[in-house]
Amino acid sequence: MTIDVSARDVTIELVRAASVTNTAGEQAFPETLLRVLGRLPYFQAHPEDLWTQPIENDPYGRRNVYALVRGDGPAGVVLTGHYDVVSAANYGPHADVAFDPEALLPRLIADLRVNARSEAERRALHDLESGDFLPGRGALDMKAGLAAGIAALAEFAARPARRGNVLFAAVADEEVSSHGARQAAPELRALAEREGLDWRLVINLDATGDNGDGSAGQAVYLGTAGKLLVSAFVVGVDTHAGYSLDGVNVNFLASELTRAFEFSPELTDRSAGIMGTPPTVLRQQDLKTYYDVTTPARAWLCVNALTHGLDAATVLDRFKASAQAALDDALDTLRRRAEALGETRSAAHGATPLVLTYADLLERARQQVPDLDAALTAYDAGLDPQLDLPTRSAHLTGWLWDASGLLGPAAVLGFASLHYPNTTLDSRNPTEAQALDLVRATLREKGAELGVTISERPIFTGISDMSWFGTADSADIAAVNANTPAPAAHIHAPPAGLPCINLGPWGRDYHQWLERAYAPYSFGTLPRLVSALTEAFLR
Listed GO molecular functions (predicted)? Predict the structure, then answer.
């Protein structure tokens, strides 16, 4: 097999077009991809098969890029990756060349020869001096993956007799909200229907980190972790600070919830014998916006919860149970402390904490307020459009709490941001089981031919666009939407429902100033593996 497009040269060209998320560079980047792809003879002969699609209602005016190489028959494979990258601010004095790998390389070597102190910096110096690593913002995450996909697409396009079809799809905004992949999922379904295509496999080309010999980085991932931002709107009983026993301080309640949630084994997904990432609190704040000597009445927590097997409804049920136990314990503690001070009639003595979900709160409020849904929609429309989703969710939950007429102490559990479903190739599904067998056989055979071993990992532990190309339970999506206050965070189009894997480049220190891709694998081996899988699924 000969691949005429140099994945290294394409990577450098793509890196030089800075495309930091939510910037003008990201908006303009599709033009770079159109230029690179437009050089292929296939698209010079068939320009109609190379196009962009604007992302709906996107304030940044971004587009997804599609390149379809057609052959005989309906079978199809999708090669996909994101083109946005994180900021280069952490490059310090090298920020001016962070997007120019060839200019950056000697600068980093010179810097590290003088200033390398940590093990990571000494490893980076060794790597860069070896000539086997290419540095630059986005070189690893994930312009090298896009380049591998383009090289495999070029190889397929150059075949005189093509069986099947290959679609290259480059999407925006993976680093923040995955708006590109969220739109690409229904577009894949629509394209298949319009063109009579049968998508057999989606290969996501995202990167992997490996600080060792590459054995961990040279891997195929059969699924991806999901992400939920679990929120807790916490209500206490406010009082004058001089009469503190007459209240229940919400900061104490919120702190007890944080203590219960942080690193909780009971809240960690351990499905299929895989130990997941434990939850961690990303935000804890009381919602009082001014100073006086009244204790704060309300607080807001946001907790990062990663999943690989649990559905969202189960996650919420577990957090609700944990919150109830934590608040019960908190009130017991306050009662004991009041009694130690000689007080047996404190506010804590007469309080029973209420814990409910956002969906529960919505139903209670509907019983109190006529036309509540219209009023809630109007309130949402009047909020500052620049508010982030968690802050917007706090405002919406607070409004709904007021409408319900309920009193604290209490906690309302929900989801405060965009949900990423966990997905995996399910061996119980005949179509996915067949795809899994073919992936394994192809990578084993091609790996042996190329002299590499491709390890198999069940879960890509970083958040990825695989969430939007695999399969998700529609009932679970409904449960997420019902407990997500901000309509902008709802899932309006389900994932594509296709067999999906991740096979991408590997390197080190991505998102850091020493980000670098391992060249021999990323630019040599990976495009050939992607081509082999493409050919196998189009037979």
Answer: hydrolase activity
